[in-house]
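User: Fold this, then the next.

Assistant: Folding the first:
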Amino acid sequence: MTACGDAGRYFAALEYLDLNGTQVSDLKPLRVLTKLTQLYLSRTQVSDLEPLRVLTKLTQLYLSRTQVSDLEPLRVLTKLTQLYLSRTQVSDLEPLRGLANLQLLELFDTQVSDDQVVALMKALPKLEIHR
């Protein structure tokens, strides 16, 4: 086995990754990290969440202070329990309505309307929203 092969196998087994405050903008390389349960991307240049669609084991996702606006790719992340979206460009919470395991949502300083919050709380009555 080569050193690269060993490294690839090691990284593929990661369950926790903290990239907070880094220059990360492209999430495509993370697609192979399918065992991730916690991903920290706050204070990065991230805007496109599409590559996260395959990370179905994620339970905690930190996206505060990013350029994220579209939550559609998160619709399939049904194991999410905590989602941090403060100081993002997010305004539409509809993609989160089916995330029955979501327990905590942080939305400080976003463009999310009161109507969006009310609709999400009706869909997910156990959800705690901080804004």
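Now the next one, as you asked:
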Amino acid sequence: MKTNLIRFAFAASLLVTSFNLQLASLRAQGSLTPPGAPAATMKSLDQIEARTPVDAVHTPGFLTTQFAITQPGSYYLTGNITSVSNKSGIFIETNDVTLDLNGFEMIGNSGYADAIDVSSLGVRNTVIRNGALRNWDTGVAALNGYCELEHVRVYGCTNNGFDLGEHCLVKNCTAVNNGTLNTAGMQLGDGCVVIDCLVCSNYYGISGGSDCLISGCIVSTNADLGIGLADNGNVSKCVADFDVEGVVLGDNGQIFQCVANANSDHGIFAVLGCTIKECAANGNGIGINVSEGGSVVMNNSASGNAVGIQTTGTGNRIENNQTINNSEYGINSSGGPGADIIVRNTASGNGMANYIPTTGTTFGPLQQPATATSPWANF
């Protein structure tokens, strides 16, 4: 009996010890009181993209402008802007500014002042995008150049739509119904690039300096010039129609795969040492005109003009073109026999003559395709 009591006491002691150890283990888990509110982990809008609204508080103007941007950075519109007291809309007077019009419109006052005026005092590296400018004197004036414009639409300005200095890039922009005498939808300095733009119903369409490149543009129904570039210009995959002059190139220019139709004077006019390839020039006064020497006119079609292809200089190469149903001449080399190399062309149905001249050491023999013996024959 005594032994049983001892065993019971020992077992009870072990049970109490085990229970105390479990309590100690539970206490070791720490306080059950919840911590404070969680700290913010997301970035603020300023941290994601620091931008400044264009308004009277952040970009106050002065006597001649409603709003002035005086510090480098990224800016955006928060609503439409309407001209006040003949002031310009936005004046940018510092380098390295990006201005997002944010899909809004800036509305002028019947041609007074400019919508966006970039200071000509050495200001560079300006980017403007995504909005419309209407009824100002000039839409965008950036005479110092070195700017980039994308998805900007300019309508109804009394002066130039875009008035830009050298080395500007213009993409997917529109210029319609701008200008009076000797102004342009897009007036460009040297070394500018214009891509995929619509330029219609201005006085001049696109008027550029030297070393410019124009690609993928539609330039139509302008009162005088469609596309005009000074020396060393390049025009490709453009349409220039229903202007007075379709495309005009200075010396050493290039034009590829363009359409220049229904222009009242010239479809394509080039001066000296130019290359004109794979273009269509139909229904113009003169389809393709090379005014001086040393140019290559190759693989083009020129039909329904007064004259299909005309040269007035010497040393040009006229090769593999088709001139059909022009009211006067198919190919007219005004320099006479030996002035130009004229080979492998096709001319038919032209009113006064298919070719002038038809002889000479640089003129491929006139033959019929079925019986031609010369690889240089004209048809």
